[in-house]
UniProtKB/TrEMBL annotation:
Residues 30-46 have a biased composition (Low complexity). Residues 1-20 form the signal peptide. Keywords: Signal. InterPro entries: Bact_solute-bd_prot1, SBP. It comes from Paenibacillus oryzisoli. The keyword Signal applies. Residues 27-46 are annotated as: Disordered. The keyword RNA-binding does not apply. PANTHER family: ABC TRANSPORTER SUBSTRATE-BINDING PROTEIN YESO-RELATED, ARABINOSE-BINDING PROTEIN-RELATED. This is ABC transporter substrate-binding protein.
Length: 441
């Protein structure tokens, strides 16, 4: 129900904002007349003289890094005593590093959080309650996604939809028909065969992302077999999983998906190592909040579509990411003031745009809409295409934060022909029992 409300509310905001681009739109007030949140409004006059350094960590591509750094500079201009020490990287290894930092009691004050890890971090009392932050203009259902047991521990920064990006320039050269927004798995497999026949050797149609639990979850959902997690336990349907993995192996042998040695070196949104960006493959899964990033790496090259469907759709809307505040930070209140500013300030909204998804603050979206770039409009279109039939988003339960890594390791054995799909499934179930046992302790 929560996801349906979020979908409906977000679609209304996005559609209203985009339609306003073609009509008379109320201009955002000048900065001096913007009414900030209560905490932000009080800050300029009540600014303490004591210097404050906030460590802040996030993952993302260059577009997000640049926008975030600019926003930090803006905040320091407003609050000269507050400076930042930034720690940014790609997704790979981000939570591994964060885990080490928390274990050493040396984690940043503000951390970008993912829904897959939120329950885990709250359960270990690592992140602070954000109840003091003004969320009056935020989508209420979206705010609920950052709550655990009724308390807000993660501030959602935007909404994203799961779909696919493909190199439209190569598809046009090959004389192929681009994937439709509502394509099916049968369409997907046929497209793979047709494209491979024209691509030839050493070029592939899809990046093999079968070791990412996200991809399999979308497949299982589309087959009407439910989520990968149900009632805080792994809920992978055996027959569906084995069928999916065997089909992936079949495509791997046919050269339709990338071979194992290329797959394990692929780095999403890396200028050199992303297999779609460097021309090794035609398509990969992507979230709508990554549209601007991939377009920036290879301008005017990409088209976008939904994930394939079967008896139903497999895609979902999810909070793109969150800000959480380290519960052990000595600068908690200053960190919360920054988060408040980040989600509510109009100038911050303009700087950050859609780099973390469609903002949850309706006033920010309305301000941004008249100046949406082509990539922004594509991101909005992405949301509107996926939204109406979106599946419910389910985050990993507490205690399962590292399961995706184990899943990846096990599936890579299938990729390298070190295990059959049946053997890998049995190993997966043994690993799941280990997690169940650990959670119950």
């Amino acid at each position: 129900m929560k996801t349906k409300l979020m979908t409906a509310a977000l679609t209304l905001v996005v559609m209203a904002s985009v339609s306003a681009c073609g009509s008379k739109t109320e201009e955002a007030p000048a900065k001096a007349s913007v009414q900030p949140s209560a905490a932000a409004a009080a800050t300029p006059k009540a600014e303490p003289a004591t210097p404050v350094k906030l460590r802040i960590a996030w993952w993302g591509a260059q577009e997000r890094h640049d926008a975030t750094q600019k926003a930090l500079t803006q905040y320091t201009a407003l609050h000269p005593n507050v400076t930042f020490e930034s720690e940014f990287s790609g997704w790979d290894g981000y939570f591994d590093k964060l885990g080490v930092q928390f274990a050493a009691k040396n984690a940043p004050d503000i951390i970008q959080m993912d829904a897959a890890y939120l329950n885990e971090y709250v359960g270990r009392n690592l992140v602070a309650d954000l109840a003091s932050i003004n969320v009056a203009d935020m989508d209420k259902a979206l705010i609920e996604s950052g709550k655990v047991n009724g308390k807000l521990f993660a501030m959602p920064l935007g909404t994203a939809a799961l779909g696919m990006a493909y190199d439209k320039t190569v598809i046009e050269k090959l004389g192929l028909k681009a994937p439709a927004w509502d394509w099916t798995w049968d369409d997907y497999y046929k497209f793979g065969q047709d494209a491979k026949a024209k691509l030839g050797k050493d070029k592939y149609v899809f990046v093999d992302q079968s070791s990412d639990l996200v991809d399999y979850t979308a497949y299982q959902l589309s087959r009407g077999k439910g989520q990968s997690f149900t009632d805080n336990k792994l809920s992978i349907d055996k027959d569906t999983w084995i069928t999916y993995m065997n089909k992936q192996s079949e495509m791997r042998k046919a050269g339709i998906v990338t071979p194992a040695d290329i797959t394990v070196t692929d780095k999403e949104l890396d200028p050199k190592m992303d297999s779609v960006v460097n021309g090794t493959a035609l398509a990969r899964h992507i979230f709508s909040n990554q549209v601007g990033a991939i377009n920036g790496l290879k301008p005017d090259s990409f088209g976008f579509t939904t994930l394939p469907k079967a008896t139903q759709t497999g895609g979902w809307l999810k909070p793109g990411m969150f800000w959480s505040v380290n519960a052990g930070s000595k600068q908690q209140e200053e960190a919360k003031k920054f988060v408040d500013w980040f989600i509510n300030d109009q100038e911050a909204g303009k700087t950050l745009s859609l780099t973390r998804g469609i903002p949850g603050n309706a006033k920010i979206v309305t301000t941004l809409a008249p100046n949406f770039s082509a990539s922004d409009k594509t991101s909005v279109d992405f949301i509107n295409k996926v939204g109406p039939a979106a599946q419910k988003f389910v985050a990993e339960p507490q205690g399962w934060g590292n399961f995706k890594k184990d899943y990846k390791t096990i599936v890579e054995k299938v990729m390298f022909d070190k295990a059959t799909a049946d053997q890998a499934y049995e190993e997966l179930m043994k690993k799941a029992k280990e997690y169940d046992t650990a959670v119950k302790k």
